[in-house]
Write a structure and sequence with these properties.
By secondary structure, the protein is α+β, with helices and mostly antiparallel strands. The protein is about 20% helix and about 35% strand.
Length: about 1200
Amino acid sequence: MQGSEWPNSNKGGERYEENLHKRRGLSYADKSERVEYYYIHSEVDSLKGKLTIVQLLILTLFISCAFPFSTQAAIPKKHEIPDYFADHFDKTIINDKWNVIEGPWFIDSGKLTVSKGAGYKAIANQTSVQDVTVETDISLADHNGDAGVLFRVNGAVPGVDHVKGYYAGVSANGSGSVFLGRMDNNFTELKRTAVTIEPKTSYQVKVIAVGSKIQVYLNGDLVLEQTDSTYKDGRIGIRSYNSEPFFDNVKASVPDGSSLFQDQFDNAPNQAIHSWNIVNGSWQLSSGSLRVNKDENNKIVAKDKVFDDMTLEVNLKIPDDKEKGDAGLLFGLKKVYPGDAKANGFYAAIGEDGNVTLNEWKHNKRLVLQSTKVFDRIEANKPYHLKVVTSKNTIKVYVNDTVTPVIEYSDKGRALNVKGGVGLQADQAEVSFDNFIASAYVVQERTYKQPVSNKKPLIETPFTPLPLGSVQAKGWLLEQLELQRDGATGHAEDFYGELGTNAAWLGGSAPESDWERPVYYLKGLVPLAYTLNDKELIATSQKWINAILASQRKDGSFGPESNDDWWPRMVALYAMKDYYEASGDKRVLPFMTNYFKYQAANLPAQPLKDWGKIRVGDNIDTVLWLYNRTNEAFLLKLTDTLAGQAYPIADIFSKNEFQDFGSDFQPIHSVNVNEAIKMPSIYYQRSHSKSDRKAFNAGVKNLDNHNQITGMTSGTEMLAGTSSTQGVELCAITERMQSNEEAAMILGDPQIGDDLEKITFNSLPGAMDKEIKNHQYYSLPNQVESNHADHGFKQNYSNGMMPSPTSGYPCCRFNMHMGWPYFVKNMWAASADGGIGVIAYGPSQVSVKLKKADITIKESTNYPFEDKIKFNINTSRTVKFPLKLRIPAWSVQPSITVNGEPVKGIKAGEYVSIDRKWQSGDKVVLQVPMKLKTTTWINNSIGIERGPLVYSLKMKENWQVKDKPIAPVPGFDASALGFNEYTVKADNSWNYGLLIDREDPEKSIDVVTGPMPKNPFKQATTPVKLVAKGKKIPTWGKSPNNVEAAEPPVGPIFSKEPTENITLVPYGAQNLRITYFPEVTEKLTDTGAAKYEAEKAELSHASVRTNEPNASDGSYVGGMDFADSQVNFNSVNVPKTGKYNVDIWFANGLDPSTGKIIVNGETHVLKYQNTRNWGRFMATKLEVPLKKGTNTITFMKDEGFYELDYIVVRPQQ
């Protein structure tokens, strides 16, 4: 304690109270007969004559001075759990909750008051606490003096300023103020804010003290904030100085800031066990764990910690397996006594006999509420993860599996009072505990929330994001979220050490856990939890949120001290902003403000680098989000600093400068590209620059040389050209989805929404199994086998194409979780003209407050598996606002009706605004007819699309377990649940070409629809299939690694093979697929599409390399090292004049290069992306004009070097 004034002659208030009762002639044991006294501080020598009531009171005062109360617990051997303190003064006399230090305090009409005096005070009979929230209602009789709350009081005796602790309150002097001061037998003012305080008016004063941070609120608004670490704990009280105050509703509780308690027990052995009270047993730190001897009911409880709805987690090991004892978690503790079988609360335990039990300590007896046999027996020295989640009237117990509880207990006959302290117990077992975490959480009721749009000088954007939780998924879309909850996301903490209880972002030290991986996961976990409003997921996410909030240091920095990189904090801030939108937790805004102040102060000396330098748009995004809520000008300057330290991102995308940075791979890294593409749009809100505004769409166009049919850019991991067997990284998919979601709102371009749907409905499900348990790091347009192989990728990863919880590099397994939840969150947006609009379609429901009306719109549809979308509107009152519907560019004769009446002027590729008065019961129907279309890809191959869905050859997939990367633990076998590494092979022929009319594919393809299943991405039950005509191409087989398909042969290919009906299914309904089909024909026609081998061209100062298995026909041209080196294709024949695409297969080693391409005398310069190695080829394309007849195309070196395999000339579609 800080110079405590509690005398040492008496050990605690209980001893004093016992002595006082003896002096009063009362039996201490009979507390029911206590008499309430008023304590009056008065001058003794002013009392004359016979003994009066006043003299008795004075005598009492001297007794109180002789035996002041102490902060120690009431019974030294009994551990009181600090609980909720409240006094509403609804009795006629002051009850035993208070010790009056001085002043004639009394209750008048349900309020506590005292006459004017210097420093009158009363202290609550409450256990000393560290972090605390204190609040009360105060009114002052006139403009004199002040009154308020005392907290962290370490001593108080009669005398004006004789208090050691803090004092915060209101003053009516002058026009009024709110103040905070520190007292140490004198008063030191820490901060004061002028606020109008009127006499005889009630004000709610609330103080939140967490660590060294002290916040003072008036009527719910934060008015003072100060850091002071003089007093770390103590009691609470009330004080009046020269005023006549009226107090009501004095309350104290553990604040939100104490909603996390964790201990990795990593202090040195034999050190004190801080933050814990040992009840009984020999507890000691040993080798990074907390150990206890074998004895009966050994207990240890956390100091000053109270939780209501909570998650508790701990790892425990039992050295022997004698099947006698048990160990586990204590919670809901009211009192804990030393010795055997004496406690009040709950106890979840793992027994050495393999039983898991939920027990209740009640009336000093241990009652078994539920027991289940989980293990045959406990394995000695094997770690077991025990977790408890409480939720109102339900207790769930988990062991080694955080998704499926082994015990789920509720009692319909009574309310389970789980609020209380937490701790550990071991009964007849020597136990080692590690990584204890207790975290409180609150499930918010869904409410109608007002969108927060840009504040000046930020530009007004066409759309504004809605707060998290405003949009709920329905139908098949809800099924995806629930599969994710029960699959990859729900089990993530069971699988990955980076997410365990020893994670650095939770305060621990697990390897690889102090950078991006945990916060990637959290970024997806938070929106999934709150979109589903799932209690267990919210509880899980709260643990991470609380840990991040608690990690903030005095300078504003936060997160693991072992890694000061700016980048992972950018990710964490997305999770924090989303959490704030869903929960309204008041800790978040000051947390982010303090961090951004730290960032602004430190960026000059510690500038952005590497990942943060290219992904800085994420940082700017959250800074602008905070500005719109706090209006603090320094935040705008911070965005300028961040943009100034970034790569020239707008130029990179607008001017196709991706590979202009030499050996610096950041601008060509595919995840960076798909993440950074939104940065200029985000910063445009601040810069108002046309170049920033145009950069997104310019970038989309410049990325066309890496584009795939799903709308994604290839990248393995670097940008990888147009090949049918180059992959797309799952991280890139989820990042591009977010980029499109945000850019669509900022720019208002409906095409960006079209592209978003295409990526979401194809690439995302196509990269996961259909239970959302296993993912593929890379997924390909043409993928006929998933197996270990040298795939020829820039970043190879042997298992990168295999469905697995550990596929590829460990980033996607963490970053994938935001895909579906972010899509749902951003499907709807508020419009700048006070309405609401659709960014992307799907079964959903949006609830929002517009123009002071509560509005709910239910979107009923099976889209994109059907073309009709119905909107049912409910409003709290009739209200006029525009409803903006995006009309997809691919739709044919779209239509809209409102209550059956057609809306005119509907055009594909635009937004339609329906501005009218709406009332409950209004119905809108949007019809977007889908027509089959073909698109042309590498080697003149054909893709089939219908609406936003891409279709692929139906494959008979043979899944076999290759490995079990998640080791089984007792009671939880991940492999048995389907979390495995799989080889997937095609048990059917896949080498088909399509017999098709490219201009009118519906002539040869039938659309077959069926009933809508819960999960439309299961191949067997997908509701839309296509039946096409095809022929096998016997010469089309696998590539040299015998895993990937060879590139599709250049069509049209004349074939006499029999025509077959072949089935196509949605791209996302399979993990194997053929999506780029060669065209076959039964007629010999010249379409202008032809393949030209480089080694057969006319060469000058270049050489042919033979016996090369990775080259077409086994040969290619190299040695193009000289200024006059040439590869001349002198006989390129086309049937008509027009624009053609030239697919170019090249290799250039580790460095990018440029080449001169001379077409009929006209020079073009083409940038070549660096490939994996020489002789490992990648495809790009060049658009050129050709004339009817014979043309000449010459390839020469420009900057750097490259090799040439072959080219394909094909007409533009």
